[in-house]
Design goal:
The protein is built from three helices and 14 strands. The protein has 306 residues and is α+β, with helices and mostly antiparallel strands. The protein folds into three domains: 103 residues, Efflux pump adaptor protein, beta barrel domain (Elongation Factor Tu (Ef-tu), domain 3, Beta Barrel); 62 residues, Beta Barrel (OB fold (Dihydrolipoamide Acetyltransferase, E2P)), CATH 2.40.50.100; 102 residues, Helix Hairpins, CATH 1.10.287. The N terminus is likely disordered.
């Protein structure tokens, strides 16, 4: 009876061993293409323009979408005080230039007097040697020459001092002009204004960003690929670009730069919670030829892998 019970127990279906589960890594799966999510950017990246000085916005000369050239004024800040400083500095420079001219004239006069007195001294020495001049007269002339030589040295020092002061004032003038010029916020190079963030009458602080700017150059796509396929990417891989949710290829390109490390999702994350725990590898894709894609446009990147 006991043996029969044991045999019956061995045949019970409920006592079968559980099935073994296996996990397959995405790295081990052979795929022909990888999809990354990206956005269109300028080749030289979008630049946030910041001001080196603060102030009140007096005029906004450019708006979103305007093409601009290097050195062109985008925004003007109130610069009345700076302009006044420039005018004061210019007046000081003009006054000092006049002082330099006076000191140079004094120097020329001192040189002329010294030369004349030196001639008299030489003539007196000749007369003294012939007995036609007294030693006292010669000594008086020699004393006059020594005094004029000292006066010439002082005149020369005054010229150098006046010139040094003039150089100092010119430096102050250039600084004042630079401060006034800094109130004109200019384009660093040719490009397009993407976003103008200030309006007339607003206050802007030093180093604050007042505009976003796209420098001239080719457009690229910056995309993120899931970490599972990071090892399947390499530079030169062909890429098809299409709008999200469509099958239409709107541009083609090749991977030109691969990030050497994995990072958290960032391109389309609105909140920290949107980034989840997945890591991504960033790629930059050079587009073939001209394209009508719009900067910051979201696209899908079909990367062909082997």
């Amino acid at each position: 009876m006991i043996l029969a019970g044991l045999l019956a127990g061995c045949g019970n279906d409920n006592d079968k061993a559980p099935a073994v589960q296996t996990t397959v890594s995405a790295r081990d799966v052979k795929v022909g293409q990888v999809v990354g999510i990206g956005k269109v950017e300028p080749e030289n990246a979008i630049v946030g323009l910041a001001t080196s000085t603060g102030g009140i916005v007096s005029a906004v000369l450019k708006k979103e979408g305007d093409r601009i050239h290097a050195g062109e004024i985008l925004v003007k800040l109130d610069n009345d005080k700076e302009v006044l400083k420039v005018e004061q500095a210019k007046a000081q420079v003009r006054t000092q230039e006049s002082q330099v001219a006076v000191e140079k004239s004094n120097l020329l006069e001192a040189e002329a007097k010294l030369r004349n007195k030196q001639k008299q001294l030489a003539a007196s020495a000749t007369l003294l040697s012939k007995g036609a001049e007294t030693s006292q007269s010669y000594d008086d002339l020699a004393t006059d020459v020594a005094g004029l030589e000292a006066g010439l040295a002082r005149a020369l020092a005054n010229v150098k001092l006046a010139q040094s002061r003039l150089e100092e004032l010119n430096v102050q003038l250039r600084q004042s002009e630079e401060e006034a010029g800094n109130k004109n916020l200019c384009a660093p190079r040719n490009g397009v204004v993407l976003d103008m963030k200030v309006k007339p009458g607003e206050a802007i602080s030093q180093l604050a960003e007042y505009a976003e700017f796209a420098p001239d150059g080719k457009k690229i796509v910056r995309a993120e690929v899931d970490e599972s396929f990071a090892s399947k990417l390499f530079t030169g891989q062909a890429v098809d670009i299409r709008f999200t949710g469509t099958d239409k290829v709107v541009a083609k390109g090749k991977i030109m730069i691969l990030s050497p490390y994995l990072s958290k999702k960032s391109l389309f994350s609105v909140k920290a919670s949107d980034q989840e725990d997945r890591m991504v590898r960033e790629v930059k894709i050079a587009l073939d030829g001209d394209t009508d894609l719009i900067i910051n446009e979201k696209v899908e990147c079909i990367i062909y892998v082997k």
